[in-house]
Specification:
Distance between the termini: 25 Å
Strand content: 5-15%
InterPro entries: YcjX-like
Number of helices: 17
Number of domains: 2
CATH topology of the largest domain: Rossmann fold
Order of helices and strands: HHEHHEHEHEHHHHHHEHHHEHEEEEH
Shape: globular
Protein name: YcjX family protein
Bound molecules: guanosine-5'-triphosphate, magnesium ion
CATH class of the largest domain: Alpha Beta
Helix content: 25-40%
CATH architecture of the largest domain: 3-Layer(aba) Sandwich
Oligomer: single chain
Length: about 475
């Protein structure tokens, strides 16, 4: 029997990827390894459609390699099999892949329902390794290796809570109310301000006043999201509670707090709110990072850049703020709090992806990536360091249009052709120009875009042909390609 080399003896160990140099022995490699890919993003960013299409295209990749050529394991002909993981005793709810495919492949074809909570799904990928890993594996278990890809769908709103961990209740209240006093937010928050104006933090603690303040504040957050497209809304669990029961520690809201005040006495309304805020931080926010971020070494943050542009200046600025806040969850150098919670574990790679790129012609997609990069000061090149490796791209999980040109005023203009939801016929759409930088306040006069909701294309529910997409394979190769080498 071939001798199994000890990993420290292997020449060229320096060339091994990070994940492997930390692997204690090769047995784990031979029997397979697991990679967690977390898919997140704000409401309606495209998480469910992304996971559904990704799973369907992986399961179809053997039959139709042309769907995923930029995932190198597929492009290089090294994929041996991809199948849904067999039923296991996992703790998270299962991602409804089959129901989603059925909906999208139905007549009429419909997009999947919005999601309420975290869920996961596993795909086992059997592949022929290349290079050093392949040579090491062959004496052990033939040529094939298995990567267990576990994909998790969780709301990006939860990442908006990270800043709370370094704030006191007084700081958070001041900052939050200052934001709600600006522009459109001030109009929406009129009732809430009237209520907190009558209830100073120093008044005696009252369960009913605290609950009423909380209910009013929660209605405000949901209205701002659903009616006005705002997204920088904290605490994240107030709008995406997931499986949290409506426990009394959640019944808090910001109050008017004078500058210089930092703590409230027990028995005051401020004291009660402060106590609940601290329990929320400990029980919800810290536990989320502790339970999940340790495992989710690869993450993709989906951003509906086009939707934000369509929704107008305030909604766009809000998406920008939220994207910047989300980015902080992947910057460890600056965040002692995350280092304290996660120890040496960290997210290794993050892709910020502008979704629904099929709404615009090819030439505009570079603009969309540039805009996303400039929205959150995302690095131009991924730099290795304490932070996660970060990259940015544009993608469409389900390409619902094709490109064409239209002759207008003596010029050929690129357009997209698709079927608007509910319409019987395909039509050409001149989507408009995507700016490469966040527009200045005076540039919001005329709309940038005119984009309908398209119906999904014809989809075969059997995992054979796959689903047309843009860059889904490139995104997956960036995220887990090293684990399929
Ligand atoms: N044309 C097109 N539309 C898309 C694509 N991805 C998502 N959409 C549209 O965006 C909507 C929202 O997508 P979802 O995947 O449900 O978004 P989500 O992030 O899971 O939303 P929540 O679960 O509500 O947070 C869909 O219903 C589609 O209308 C895409 O690749 N192309
Ligand atoms: Mg969803």
């Amino acid at each position: 029997m071939a001798k199994i080399p000890i990993i420290g003896d292997i020449p060229g160990l320096r060339d091994l990827p990070d994940w492997l140099s930390g692997t204690p022995n090769l047995t784990e490699l031979a029997k397979g390894s697991t990679v967690w890919l977390a898919v997140t993003g704000l409401s309606r960013a495209g998480k469910t459609v992304f996971i559904t299409s990704l799973v369907h295209n992986l399961l179809s990749a053997l039959h139709n390699p042309n769907r995923m050529p930029l995932l190198r394991a597929v492009g290089e002909g090294r994929l041996i099999a991809a199948q849904l993981e067999a039923a296991r005793a996992h703790t998270l709810p299962r991602f409804p892949y089959a129901a989603n495919i059925e909906a999208m492949a139905g007549t009429p074809s419909v997009w999947p329902e919005p999601t309420a909570d975290i869920s996961e799904i596993g795909v086992d990928i059997r592949f022929a390794p290349t290079g050093l890993v392949g040579q090491l594996l062959s004496p052990l278990g033939g040529k094939a290796a298995t990567l267990k890809l576990r994909i998790v769908d969780y709301p990006g709103e939860w990442l908006l809570d990270l800043p709370l961990l370094s704030q006191s209740y007084a700081d958070w209240s001041r900052q939050t109310l200052a934001l709600w006093k600006r522009g459109l937010r001030a109009e929406l928050a009129r009732d809430f301000f009237a209520f907190v104006g009558e209830h100073p933090a120093s008044e005696p603690s009252s369960e009913s006043v605290a609950k009423e303040a909380h209910d009013l504040y929660r209605v405000l957050l949901v209205t701002a999201r659903d009616k006005h497209g705002l997204s920088y809304l904290q605490p994240g669990r107030f709008i995406r509670p997931g499986a949290l029961a409506d426990a009394p520690y959640l019944w808090f809201a910001p109050l008017e707090v004078a500058d210089g005040v930092d703590r409230f006495t027990a028995g005051s309304l401020g004291g009660l709110m402060q106590e609940r805020f601290e329990v929320y931080k400990r029980e919800v926010v810290e536990k989320f990072y502790d339970n999940y971020f340790r495992n989710y070494a690869r993450q993709i943050v989906l951003v509906d850049v086009l939707g934000a542009l369509l929704a107008g200046r305030e909604a766009f600025e809000d998406t920008r703020l939220a994207t910047e806040a989300i980015l902080q969850s992947f910057r460890y150098g600056q965040h002692n709090i995350l280092t304290r919670i996660l120890g040496s574990s960290r997210v290794e790679k993050v892709l910020f992806a502008a979704t629904k790129a099929d709404h615009i012609p090819d030439r505009q997609r570079e603009h969309m990536s540039a805009l996303l990069r400039n929205m959150a000061a995302l690095p131009v090149l991924s730099a290795r360091g304490r932070d996660a490796d970060i990259d940015v791209m544009s993608l469409a999980s389900v390409a619902s249009t094709v490109e064409a040109t239209q002759h207008i005023d003596g010029r050929d203009i690129e357009v997209v052709v698709g079927r608007k939801i509910g319409s019987a016929k395909q039509a050409k759409f001149l989507s408009g120009e995507v700016p490469m930088r966040p527009p200045r306040p005076d540039e919001w006069g005329a709309p940038f875009l005119d984009i309908p909701v398209f119906e999904p294309p014809l989809i075969d529910p059997a995992p054979v042909d796959g689903i047309p997409h843009i860059n889904l394979d490139l995104a997956l190769d960036y995220l887990i390609g090293d684990r399929l080498q």
